[in-house]
Design a protein that fits this description.
- Strand 1 and strand 2 form a beta hairpin.
- A 3-stranded antiparallel sheet has the order 2-1-3, covered by helices on one side.
- The relative contact order is 0.29.
- It has one domain.
- Helix content is 25%, strand content 37%.
- The protein is built from 1 helix and 3 strands.
- The longest helix has 14 residues.
- By secondary structure, the chain is an alpha+beta fold.
Length: 57
């Protein structure tokens, strides 16, 4: 079953402590942006990335 055409691609938000991945969050773009912002406010010293999620095969 394929996804509806109106569905937006998922985003992957990762939170890093140095070189160690400590959070890997997958959600729609709006929620991913909110999550990224919330983590950056709460944990200013951590690196946060927000990238397109790769298609699972």
């Amino acid at each position: 079953m394929s996804a509806p055409a109106t569905e937006q691609p998922l985003r992957r938000v990762c939170v890093w402590l140095g070189e160690h991945l400590i959070i890997d969050h997958l959600s729609d773009p709006a929620k991913a942006t909110w999550f990224e912002y919330a983590i950056q406010r709460r944990h200013a010293g951590l690196r946060v990335t927000n990238e397109p999620a790769e298609a699972e095969q």
